[in-house]
Every structure is written in C-alpha cells, then in structure tokens.
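Researcher: Go.
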Amino acid sequence: MNKVPMTVRGHELLQQELKKLIGVDRPTVIKAIATAREHGDLKENAEYHAAKDQQGFIEARIKELEGKLSHVQVIDVTEIDAGGKIIFGATVRLLDEDSEREITYKIVGEDEADIKTGLISFTSPIARALISKNEGDVVEFKAPDGQKTYAVIEVRYE
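Model: Structure:
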C-alpha cells in the first residue's frame, strides 16, 4: 500500500488517540464487562451487552488506527525549503475575490481534514488548485457550489 501523507500534528493526534484507547478505554471496558458478568444472566443483562458493544467499537478503532499509522508518511513542513511555494502542510491565507473575505487554510492529510477548523485535505479541489502557487498568485477552481477565485495573500510553514 502507498504511504499516506500526514502532518506532524495529525500523526501525534492519532498516536495519542491510540494510546488512550489501549491504555485507558480498553481496560475500562474490560472491567465493565467483568462487573456486568457478576450480575448473573447474560441474556438479559443490558450492561453486559452495552459493554460488549463498546468493546467492539474500541477494538475496531484500535485496528483502524494501527493500520493508518503503519502507512503514514509524516511530513514536517518546517524542515522543507519550499521557496515560498504552497506545499502539503503549508498554511495559506487567501482573499475570496467574490466576497472580499479572508480565509486561512492549512493543507493536511485526508484523516486530519476538518473544514470547520481550517484544515483542508490535499485532495480537495481548493488544495489541488493551491499546491505549487506562490504569494500574489490568483487561483481559480471549481468548487461544489461553483467557480471560485482566490488571491494568495500569505504562505506560512508552521
């Protein structure tokens, strides 16, 4: 399988989540299952079934995270000399030329993307249009809600 790009911060967050699932959540649910078993008949024991369901979710998430982390290529944008170009991991301040509104995005991996916090996937239409552009460039691309035009105000590597 190909390596999946991820920022340093995204990698740290996935590792923290995995550590919590293994070190805290898994032991907690195991205790809950043991406690529920002590209450007797498992067929009609809602606590037992809820704990088993929770255990299934935890184990599935652990497996998913371990799989993702095994295929990650961590990219530290602060160690790359991009010469002012927009690259994976760059933070970009833009001016929407239609609304005159400033927007800031950070280009991240698919698992890190969260448009509400300004994190956009490198596979998104806007990120694909921005990559390799410089400050001062004007970028046009087709968004789900129509054609957009942005001016690149600033490119940061943080």
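Model: The radius of gyration is 22 Å.
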